[in-house]
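Protocol step 4 of 6: structure prediction from sequence.
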Amino acid sequence: MKPLVVISAWLSLLVGGTALAATIPGQPDPVHGKALAESLCSNCHLVGSGQEHVNADIPSFREIANVPGRTAGDIIGFIILPKHPMPEIPLTKAELADLAAYIISLRDQP
């Protein structure tokens, strides 16, 4: 009976792995990060394709994601220690990781 359980688990991961990965505790959730971006960041940053650019001097999230060598850790650092005119935004560690995952997901694919 045990091998059948293992095979079922593997199949469920293969079939629904993408949806499952977003619900695993401790894994960044870019879908939640997008929701955070739309509610907290869209007054200044262009966070998605359906939005007009607010300020030409403030980079879009796609521009931020495409800086060579940019990591999720870099993005989290910029949010935790913002430079003027960016305000301090109180977020949990999980929210920071989710927001950074969303921004990195906007990176242009080669």
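Step 5 (inspection) to follow. The chain has one domain: 24-105.
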